[in-house]
Design goal:
Number of strands: 0
Oligomer: single chain
Number of helices: 9
Order of helices and strands: HHHHHHHHH
Structural class: mainly alpha
Shape: globular
Length: 219
Amino acid sequence: MTGAQHHLAVSSVAEQSHRAVPLPRWAAALLIIGAAMAVDPWGWFPFGPLRWTVISVASLLLVAASLRQQTPIRLERATLLGWGGFLGWGIVASTVALDQIHTWIGTPDRRLGFVTVALMALDFFAGQALAAQQDHQVILHAMTVAVLGIGAYTLLEVIGLAPVDLATASGRPGGPYGSAAYLGAAVALMVPAVVAAAAGGVKSVQWRYAATAAAALGL
């Protein structure tokens, strides 16, 4: 092989590797945005089945893409032991539960089963592979989009224009989750990251403006 051929071969491999790397980060972005905004206004239960379908597909895509990467995933020991103990106890509890089916797979509306919890564990460890700076940028962009979507939906709900007409005993908005508790938990989880993005965590000025708007809506 001549020097020029060798250079072309190395360049081709590097280019293919470069194209393969972004898949985990985009799967993670799909997971974040889908978990926040997947609502089916015409479905049997608007806030459950479609969201969990998107979460399941995006999670499996994230895990599969992370495992295909050249760089091995470095698992943090303490969290590995914690998840191992938790999942082990979950298997025991699910095995002796009275409602076997729903204990393992959950219910169609919003209650988790063991399979979903195990999927969360896989997401957690696959996420540890997203260590590059560009990975962090895409994650912050996805959180910004998610919080903007949550805020916009909630505002529409407050003024009576949401796609789903939801009546709650407390009178509090449920946002795209259909639950005030879930809405509060999601905002509490993502708004700090969006604030960090607005403060300089993202490189693009336009994304900083978007993150600032998202943080204002989230707060």
